[in-house]
């Protein structure tokens, strides 16, 4: 299957660990960084190619030895001091600086973005090189240490656990450790004048003036977390943080262990609660289970969309049947121009992928019955915890529980929308 982003990533090696030390000057939008990557060769290597955006690279070393490098067109190429055998490790250090520039894409700029007072990272799918050198492919998951130094008036939130906060003259340094493996596009830094609070085991970071709205709109976060833990298995990370920026965002931003919402997503009336459910569900489907290739995006977005329907069902809203019938009617009126399991890069974030993905899961649920379906779903999430997944693997997993081959082929491989299933499920009360 052809890569959707052939200019990103390199399968000749994998990164085991990223150690990022960043200094960010907010007013100047100036980022100075040192990145140390522990890499393992998948085949004999004479050079290493990293993805990195518009920065000035001041030096590169491998295992402590300075090496020659070239940098251009989003690629940092470095000559290794000697051949690296397959299976061998090397530590690469890159020193770089400049003003972060989002990566251009069909969906606009991706990656590090300036806010009106701070910064955020929105990396999906190819924005990571806008702020650190990396092997930018979704199946190359690594552990991280992220250290950010900036002005003391600002909160810094990054993936993982805050392990240190050090004050110096005019700056504060925040250090986060992300032990569970993470794809590059899910690595994130959020910087703003945030007030911190907590609800239902979730940490909230938000402008002080929005505190009442945020507390209300995320007030059912604990119930939502409990439901998804019941259905998908235990929450897969050490913690969960919701960031609400003081800027409008087109859509919420997914990151590992956190979700980022704009002030426009907080109305004090839970008007965007389906998005709250969607982003939380991504911690299982997208962050813990990450697609090995972008063509299988339905395994993330379809599952998170179906989680919206499951939350609606449990929390007193319309049952999944009602959502499914409504969306089936809408999709049936739209062009059927791609296969769900390989929609093509232009349709990667098309709403038809999200909703047809959810309809696929609902059809599987109807075929299997609730008890088998939810057992299948939880075992999928738990059995692949912190791994990379493909459509073929999910289909094989489903077959172990229910003869679903023809059903999944129709929904995933054929372009025409299969008919809506007959009959009506009773309102689900629990798996």
UniProtKB/TrEMBL annotation:
Location within or outside the cell: Cytoplasm
Highest rank taxon of the organism: Bacteria
Domain Peptidase M1 membrane alanine aminopeptidase: 224-399
Keyword Hydrolase on entry: yes
Residue ranges occupied by any Aminopeptidase N-like N-terminal domain in the UniProt entry: 124-186
EC number(s) on file: 3.4.11.2
Cofactor dependency: Zn(2+)
Zinc as UniProt keyword: yes
Keyword vocabulary terms for this entry: Aminopeptidase, Cytoplasm, Hydrolase, Metal-binding, Metalloprotease, Protease, Zinc
Catalytic activity from the UniProt record: Release of an N-terminal amino acid, Xaa-|-Yaa- from a peptide, amide or arylamide. Xaa is preferably Ala, but may be most amino acids including Pro (slow action). When a terminal hydrophobic residue is followed by a prolyl residue, the two may be released as an intact Xaa-Pro dipeptide
GO molecular function annotation: aminopeptidase activity
Family of this protein: Belongs to the peptidase M1 family.
Protein name, UniProt field: Aminopeptidase N
Species in which this protein is naturally found: Nonomuraea spiralis
